Amino acid sequence: MNGPVKKTNEYTLKEAINELLESYRLNTKLDEFKAIQAWEILMGPAIARYTKHLSINNRTLYVEISSAALRQELSYGKSKIVKMMNDAAGSVVIDDVILR
To answer: 51-97, pLDDT tens digit by residue?
Structure first.
C-alpha cells in the first residue's frame, strides 16, 4: 500500500507557466506565434523573401505574397502548409490558408 499523498502548493516553473497560460487563455496565441515564427524555416528563405505579411485570424492563416506566380504555386499546396504550420505550433491553430 502506498503512503499518504503529499499535498503541496509547490509547482515546477513549467507547471506554473502552463497554469498561467491556461488561466489567461494564452495557449492558443502562443501556438499561433510559434507557427508564424516558423514560416521562414518551413518555407525557406526564397519564399520568405516574397512574404510581406502573415497573420492568423479565426484559425485562418493570411499570407500576403508579393509575387503572383509564387502565390499561384503555393495555392496548390495549401493543405501541406496547414499541416506544416500546425506541426510547428504543436497544436491545431489553422484550418485554412488565404494567399493574397
So the answer is: 999 999 999 999 999 999 999 999 999 999 999 999 999 999 999 99
Q: Alpha carbon 46 to chain centroid distance? A: 21
What global pTM score does this model have?
Answer: 0.80
Q: Is 70 helix (H, G, I), strand (E, B) or coil?
A: helix
pLDDT at 2: 60
Count of domains for the chain: 1
Domain that holds residue 31: 26-99
C-alpha cell at 37: 515564427
User: How far is residue 86's CA from residue 94's CA, in Å, rounded to a whole number?
Assistant: 7
Q: Which CATH number covers residue 74?
A: 3.30.300
Phi, psi (deg, nearest 5) at residue 99? -100, 130
